[in-house]
Amino acid sequence: MNKKRIVTWGAFILGLVILLFGLAKLGAKSSGNITTASSTLLAPVTDSDWFKGSAKAPHTIVEYSDFQCPACASYYPLIKRLTDEYPNEVRVVYRHFPLEELHKNAKPAAIAAEAAGKQGKFFEMHDALFNTQDQWAKDGNPELTFEDLAGSLGMNGKQFKEDVNNPELKKRVEENISQAVQNGIGGTPTLFLDGKLIQTPNSYEELVQLVVGKK
């Protein structure tokens, strides 16, 4: 093999290694990465957290999620079904972790959910955002879609617009992001069950067994 061919193959192999490394890094950012996160939830649940289910439930799931993340949208029906069917057994806490490098509309969506929360409709907007993700995910002006969703949910449109621009709501979202970063979370959805990091179950049956079947 001549020297030119050796150099060519060497460059090809090096490029392949760089490509594979880049893909692995991107994958870690776009989906839950259990190897990098701390195994213990560092920010305890407080009265300021949004949650579904009974506050007295024996088990609590804390979910760090991104409204524009396809994996989160796929997992959302499982979490919703769990809280609908076992409201007394499990409490699910939702925390924002918009991956802004990948999802430019994720943070505005999180703020829109917070604005809905000011009118007592956080989880109604939460559900609507996931159900319509394909409509606004790549929209250059997603705020108009968020306003339409707010209207469809019976909110006061004027108040919603004002609240979306409330710096306190942006601060709340950024506090969730800071918590996630401090916890070493690398992607979404990331779940903690009773304060311990868990591997995201692959099916609803596995989720029920893990949470409700836990003694």
TrEMBL record:
Which InterPro entries would you find in this protein's record? Answer: Thioredoxin-like_fold, Thioredoxin-like_sf, Thioredoxin_domain
The cross-references to PROSITE patterns, in alphabetical order and at most eight, read: THIOREDOXIN_2 (PS51352)
One Gene Ontology MF term: oxidoreductase activity
What protein is this chain from?
Thioredoxin domain-containing protein
State the UniProt keywords alphabetically: Disulfide bond, Oxidoreductase, Redox-active center, Signal
Record's signal peptide = none
Name the domain of life. Bacteria
Native species of this protein?
Candidatus Magasanikbacteria bacterium RIFCSPLOWO2_01_FULL_40_15
Family under the similarity heading: Belongs to the thioredoxin family. DsbA subfamily.
Q: Identify the Pfam families for this entry.
A: Thioredoxin_4
Q: Where is the Thioredoxin domain?
A: 24-170
